[in-house]
Amino acid sequence: MGYNRPMQKIKVSTQKREQVLDITQLVQAAVSKGACHDGCVVVYCPHTTAALSVNENADPDVKADLLQHLSEMIPQKTTFRHSEGNSDAHIKTILSGPSLTLIIENGRLQLGTWQGIYFLEFDGPREREVWVKTS
Amino acid sequence: MGYNRPMQKIKVSTQKREQVLDITQLVQAAVSKGACHDGCVVVYCPHTTAALSVNENADPDVKADLLQHLSEMIPQKTTFRHSEGNSDAHIKTILSGPSLTLIIENGRLQLGTWQGIYFLEFDGPREREVWVKTS
Amino acid sequence: MGYNRPMQKIKVSTQKREQVLDITQLVQAAVSKGACHDGCVVVYCPHTTAALSVNENADPDVKADLLQHLSEMIPQKTTFRHSEGNSDAHIKTILSGPSLTLIIENGRLQLGTWQGIYFLEFDGPREREVWVKTS
User: Fold this and answer.
1) Bridge partner residues of A103 (DSSP)
2) Cβ C80–B69 below 8 Å, yes or no?
3) Residue A78: is it exposed, middle or buried by C-beta count within 10 angstroms (0-12/13-18/19+)?
């Protein structure tokens, strides 16, 4: 059929245990490289302690409030059974979600005025990937 | 390739700070207008303090329980840094998610018996949009 | 256009009120049966008290920690209004999400090394379905 392009892999390096990284421009570059003019893009996180989200791109305090509040809701409890001690990161990942499906028109990601695409690191620092597939 | 239709924009007006609105019929109308017979539809919320979900369409008490419990889990704390005072709404939005990908067959949205599509307003009242793209 | 395959329905039986079931192989089998070589697959849960997720496929303690912590965050409160007494299950479902969009290349689901696809039962035991549509 020929209309699908190979998946692209974006490299993301995180510097802290928990971090919110704006990857909007990296995803847009992958969309442009994939030559998708009109359709959808799946943005996918192949990790079990990191997730993807779309939210406020203006005030960095929103990111700090998010990480602080998630850590109060889902603390690193000593009663968790998982021996790696990062069950909090797995649970935050499940609630945030592994994938986004976004709309493309005229070769551009369609995002709201205040929206950016975020990589949510919950168990770094690590070398991570984000996979991008247009269709 | 010609098989993609332009994105449609649905207008949604909310009346309260927090509100759950059933938009199932509006999304179905957009799918029908887009003449999609068989495929998928991306339903996307371009806002940072409102989200989308699929859930119970029968008992309105489910909506009330959802909003009440989310507000207990994620209250409007005075310790949040974000100066607009709506960090709770951003966090609820991130956990609920900005987009849904739904299946279409024979021109109809494929939903479970008890499912409806909901717009979740967390910082209204506002004039909002929901974007719909079939493929 | 002829490139879309009919939706497939996977049967899932749950044995407990809350349960995390690995359905990765069932989804891969549906992808293979749908003869999708390259594209995306929408995996959809048509229920209002069960959801889908992607996470750790190695240590079963992660599943136990997830269910335990979600029940602490969202308990079966007597103050919920919904008369069926399962508002906790509806709220857990909304936060986990009803659908996943995954990438397919060379006929295989593209998942991270430690990732599996999970069916999250929050109000079983029940006979459930998961819908799979490739494109």
Assistant:
1) A40
2) yes
3) exposed
* CA B53 from centre of chain: 5
C48 lies within 8 A of chain B by CB: yes
Q: Which residues of C76-87 are buried (b: 16+ CB within 10 A; e: fewer)?
A: eeeebebeeebb
3-state secondary structure of A33: helix
Number of H helices, E strands in chain B: 3, 8
Which residues neighbour A100 within 8 Å (Cβ) at sequence distance 6 or greater? A42, A43, A52, A53, A54, A117, B98, B99
CB atoms within 10 A of CB C64: 15
**CA distances to A94, B97, C21 from C100, in Å:** 12, 12, 15
Cα of A94 to nearest chain B Cα, Å: 9
Inform me whether the C-beta atom of residue B24 falls under 8 Å from chain C C-beta atoms.
no
Give yes or no for a contact between C48 and C90, defined as CB atoms under 8 angstroms apart. yes
Class of domain C17-126: mainly beta
The residue of chain C nearest to residue B65, with distances taken between CA atoms, is C80
Let me know: does B119 contact B10? Beta carbons within 8 Å.
no
| Among C117, C121, C132, C101, CA closest to C55 | C117
Q: How far is CA C133 from CA A88, B38, B40, C2, in A?
A: 32, 10, 8, 14
Per-residue confidence in pLDDT tens, chain B, 135 aa: 345 678 999 999 999 999 999 999 999 999 999 878 899 999 999 999 999 999 988 888 999 999 999 999 999 988 899 888 899 999 999 999 999 999 999 999 999 999 999 999 999 999 999 999 998
User: What ranges do the domains of chain B cover?
Assistant: 17-126
**Model ipTM value:** 0.94
